[in-house]
Amino acid sequence: MASVYGGSSLNIAASDSMNAKEGCFLKPVYFCNGFDTAITINGSSDVYGFMRDDTYAKSVLKTRLSNRGWVMQEKILSPRTLHCGRMGMFWECKTTIASEFFPNGLKHHLKARSESLVYKHPVKTLLDSQALECRWWTLCFRYSSCDLTYPGDKLVAISGVAREFQQRNGGLYYAGLWREGIEEQLCWQPLEPQTRPAYRAPSWSWAAVDGVIKFSIQYPPAETLYIRMLSCNVAATPDQFGAVSDGLDTPDDLQASAWAQAAEAYADLGQPKQDFRFCLDCAGEIYARLSTAVYFLPVLQRHGNRRHKSQKGPDGLLMQSVTVQGLVLDGKGLDKGRYRRIGYFDFENAGFEENEYHPFMSLLEISGKQVAEEHCIEVARNSEHPDEKEFVICLV
User: Fold this and answer.
1) Residue 192: how many CB atoms within 10 A of its CB?
2) pTM greater than 0.85
3) What is the pLDDT of residues 228-245, one digit of tens each?
4) What is the largest CA-CA distance in the chain?
């Protein structure tokens, strides 16, 4: 299907139709969705466009059709799309956003508002950027909110776009992630965890779970990485962008051990007793973890700024912050050194607030290497720093 839509001249979308029988022309007869008018101010006359600022979103992004997972790559790969809906017709191509009320294109101020609704990236421009990695995660964020009749199509339904990204940007593709910067890409987080679906991707891939996914990709990249990927073995169908069934090998410098303790997502890490929050990838799994050892794997550390509303004036005080992000792993039922991802943690040190950052980093420094050595597949020497050890594990 990707080649069909990618090789087309025009894609006509019945965006608001309930079914195939309802048709394209659903706009009420006397409906008006914007207009141009000449306005004179201080003797100077100009033409201004007027339109509700949510019109583009309601006509293109939040329609019944746009909520379907397969539709996203059809819209992106098609060079032009004509959206037919209850608020009139909208046109999208790589250079223009227009509607039947603004056939020459949206005026500058209207276009700016429309683009802001899609994070500055209109659908047709997602493939046309030097920062393709950023655009990929914008696309995956939107795609993760879409529905699929068959959840097993999670990677298949976006495979055409992945192939197009690779042709434009190069790089190796692993189950929804790209080889370059893959360590940072592992730090995704479900916004509203759902029950765990049937297997369709390795646990380290965002495609393994349902629901909207938040990605922590930022520029510039993280200042500190605690892990480094050695190799990746993804068993795919004949289409390398399709369904997968294997895992990712990664070494880590430091790893902390944790025990799931209560019905809430907290962990007891070492002595003295200290609780640490973490977020489960899938809802309803906390009770299954109450007697299971889980492990905190720090992935990266980055610096930033955070505004404290309670400090000094209505806008608060802008303060520097440092954050450590990582994965929560479970090795139950697996061989030594092999783990599956079950969650995510994010500890921030931001000024006046009580936080878990310093206790976690302290315990990591004290016992991290010992725990890692006890639970890894093998201990290796760092090729870049021969005096340092690397602890090799496998994520499946």
Assistant:
1) 8
2) no
3) 888 887 776 667 777 775
4) 80
Which residues of the chain are modeled with pLDDT < 50? 109, 112-122, 130, 247, 251-266
Residue 79: phi and psi, rounded to 5, are -65, -25
Q: Which pairs from 189-195 meet CB under 8 Å and 24+ separation?
A: 189/213, 189/214, 189/216, 189/279, 189/344, 189/346, 190/214, 190/279, 190/281, 190/282, 193/279, 193/280, 193/281, 193/282, 193/283, 194/282, 194/283, 195/282, 195/283, 195/284
296 to each of 177, 271, 303, 341, 366, how far by Cα in Å?
A: 21, 16, 20, 10, 14
* 92 vs 88: CA distance, rounded Å: 13
**Amino acid present at 263:** A
**Exposure string over 322-339, b if 16+ CB within 10 A, otherwise e:** bbbbbbbbbbeeeeeebb
